[in-house]
Amino acid sequence: MLEKVDLTKKMSKEEYRTKMERLERELGELQRKCKRLDIPVMIAFEGYPAAGKGAQMGELIHALDPRGFEVHTVKKETEEERMHPFMWRFWTKMPAKGRIALYDTSWYRKVLSEKPEKRAFDSILSFERQITDDGVVLVKLFLAIDKKEQKRRFQKLEKKKESAWRVSDADRKHYEHFEEYEKIYEEMLQQTDTDYAPWHIIESMDRRFATVKIYTIVINALAEGVERATAPQTTGKKREVYIDDSDLRESILNKVDLSLAYGKKEYKTKLKELQSKIQLLHGELYRKRIPVVLAFEGWDAGGKGGAIKRLTEKMDPRGYMVIPTASPNDWEKAHHYLWRFWQAMPKAGHFSIFDRTWYGRVMVERIEGFCTIEEWQRAYKEINDMERDLYDAGAIVLKFWMQIDKDEQERRFKARQENPEKQWKITEEDWRNREKWDQYEAAVNEMLIRTSTPHAPWVVVEGNNKYYARIKTLQTVVKAIEERLRR
Amino acid sequence: MLEKVDLTKKMSKEEYRTKMERLERELGELQRKCKRLDIPVMIAFEGYPAAGKGAQMGELIHALDPRGFEVHTVKKETEEERMHPFMWRFWTKMPAKGRIALYDTSWYRKVLSEKPEKRAFDSILSFERQITDDGVVLVKLFLAIDKKEQKRRFQKLEKKKESAWRVSDADRKHYEHFEEYEKIYEEMLQQTDTDYAPWHIIESMDRRFATVKIYTIVINALAEGVERATAPQTTGKKREVYIDDSDLRESILNKVDLSLAYGKKEYKTKLKELQSKIQLLHGELYRKRIPVVLAFEGWDAGGKGGAIKRLTEKMDPRGYMVIPTASPNDWEKAHHYLWRFWQAMPKAGHFSIFDRTWYGRVMVERIEGFCTIEEWQRAYKEINDMERDLYDAGAIVLKFWMQIDKDEQERRFKARQENPEKQWKITEEDWRNREKWDQYEAAVNEMLIRTSTPHAPWVVVEGNNKYYARIKTLQTVVKAIEERLRR
């Protein structure tokens, strides 16, 4: 894409002034519209060193209401960031709905600074697809100058004492290997120029020309986003039930042997043994900087809480976090549904233990109609992609489904109601959900099939006997850690 | 995805009979509807050896009108197929609109029989995305049985003389390495289970159960396709012009130096030299089995024909094919727009020279509104993917844009009109297209930027002087071949 571009385009001062007056007004207006319509906007500035990314961001924000935008400068990864999957820092820095985020270099930094491997591009494509599917207006700008101009700009900076420091060794290296870098840039542009997130090359030899072009592209992108958001909704296609295939669909849950049980004594012995094992292994994971993600799902009163409690009881509390997942609050709703989970992903050497998870998308949100059919159908792949990113970053990822039968649930609900200390645990909603047992069961079965992967398997835990369920959970965790440490 | 599936599901004869009666009727009806609505359908049968793919295909076609379907048995690649990119055989075997194609194993064969490399999955994902975007109903079935059952079926076949041959060495190998194959299957399912082309696992221990499930899935997919096709169209969003950025957009064409020229004598000497070079190189390409794809685009009367003629003049006619591209005929329109070009791609060692190309999608189809905005915007990536597949299969891919200016075009048009032998070359349409010069110029510039790639570069040929244009074309071809042969 770079090859064919004429970098030397220019604009006169006069033309620039006339155009900018109008463009600044339009951009300000559009920012207000996007805010009103809850449209999140992300603008990524990439390009050659000394192409003027900083200066152009400065120009762009002239027209913006400072309460509505944020600037992220993407430097070398911090210690914290290095300890997470590489897209983590961007997932956690997504703008809320109605806000504009500008990125001074972006998620492309990774594929530019390192030898780009195929997986990194996959992660990027998946990220951009997910956020644009979710309504983000994404603008990707690539500022280009030629080698001579780069040298001229470096020399100008180096001549003066007060600016000489701004030319880094990396910059000099870039100049020396200009042609090689150009190839890397070209590959990057190629691999990631999509219809949902196209690249815009900005000819940046002349600053005025570049500014006007950037304004124009951003304005057009926002206007398009506004149009999309206000277009008559083709409200999520309602799938008819054509032929009822419910008896043909896979049922994993109803073949689970719920009679499995341990006696109290056996339980206590095993528990003690497993808990000290986990304590030891936890230390080793920490030393080896291996992150662990444990996801707990299951029927209401299925025993998630009890299993998590036994799991963590003897663990060093500085090394794990339990994340209870309730319905999303307003701020969470103002982001992509995976955003809040990305926030909580463990850094290397730590545990994140989720009590309910991102799988809400394909269970409660699916069944209650909190998202469209397209959205939950898309979610299987989105979730698999996320868990793959975690795995690729070295994490152990395990997912537990705590299975009990309907009678057992009723027993537990009633027991809770009768116990004054546990009454808070049971609500009207629990009884309502119970009525949709069959719908949930079908959704869970589909979820288990579509998202059980070698790198992030589902473990169905036979839960009618709590002792058995807890021991199986702990055993599974221990086994997974031991296998990982042997690798 | 396989791990959680209960393969042992069964269905009684009675239930089977009752269900099938209704299912066969429904499927027949839906086939007729799909025909009427011009919906193409592709059904891929994958799965373990002896899982019953053949038998199940036999069951499925019971209900189908034989004039409306075709069965493709995907065996080991033929000599012809091995000499093309691996997706070529499937691109060329796409069903026309309104027809159903069944595949006894499919494009997944490649990733199963060989060590799956990342690029092969990319090609598959791109293929499935493109055809479903284009309205194909795609059903992917995976028939699974367990190891014991596989052995039982093999033994049963082997016991009888007349069926023993049906168990191949490859089958036996599959049985021996059952668990390893399972991992490969799992990876394949993982990588390619998408919202636009999901996998369906068919529990195939019990044939009746499997048949009913397959019928049900196919019926539901067709019904969904029918619903989509008849839903009120959200006719391709009409993009408003927000801010006119035409003066900011890249113009490659207007910086071309059209004064470049050769004199007749110089031309003749160079031409002779280049033509004999090509003759020689052609032989070497043939011996090394390297395919060559040359695409010619340019203004009407830009000199495409003349350049192609000089290029091929001395070449062995058995080793190249010139493909003139007119507007698609009805049969071609009944397929994906890339289909007819895939048909014409060269086998290894041969040249395909296209006089006008698949780039019509982003030029004439874009400007005349023959496709939607979404369609031509998607096309850049689709085209880049196709050319990448060709390149990955070892091809040299070069694209020429024959550039002349508006005055030169007028001169040539008039000359043609005045020359009785060339009058046929000029039509009213040519004059009409000329009126849209500026629109075409903008489209061409965008095309050159978005689809010029290192593996399939665009070469803009300065064409006002025909001698110069032809020599440059030949020189570029020679240089590209020489470079490739040195690799």
Number of helices of chain A: 21
Largest interface: A-B, 58 and 57 residues
User: How many beta-strand runs of chain A?
Assistant: 10
Query: Would you tell me the structural class of the helices and strands of chain A?
Result: alpha/beta
| Biggest sheet statistics of chain A | 5 strands, parallel
Helix content of chain A: 40-55%
Strand content of chain A: 5-15%
The rounded distance between the terminal residues' Cα atoms of chain A is 42 Å
- Sequence stretches where pLDDT stays below 50 over 5 or more residues of chain A: none
Short structural summary:
2 copies of one chain form a homodimer. The first copy, chain A, is built from 21 helices and 10 strands.
Walk me through this protein's architecture.
Two copies of one chain form a homodimer. Chain A is α/β, with parallel strands linked by helices. Chain A contains 21 helices and ten strands. Chain A has helices at about 15-35, 55-60, 80, 90, 110-115, 120-135, 145-160, 160-165, 170-175, 180-190, 205-230, 265-285, 305-310, 330-335, 340-345, 365, 375-390, 405-420, 430-435, 435-450, 465-485, and strands spanning about 40-45, 70-75, 100-105, 135-145, 200-205, 290-300, 320-325, 350-355, 395-405, 460. In chain A, the strands form two sheets. A five-stranded parallel β-sheet of chain A has the order 2-3-1-4-5, with helices on both faces. Chain A has a five-stranded parallel β-sheet with strand order 7-8-6-9-10. In chain A, helix 1 (about 15-35) runs parallel beside helix 11 (about 205-230) and helix 12 packs parallel to helix 21. The longest helix of chain A has 24 residues, at about 15-35. Chain A is elongated and about 85 Å long.
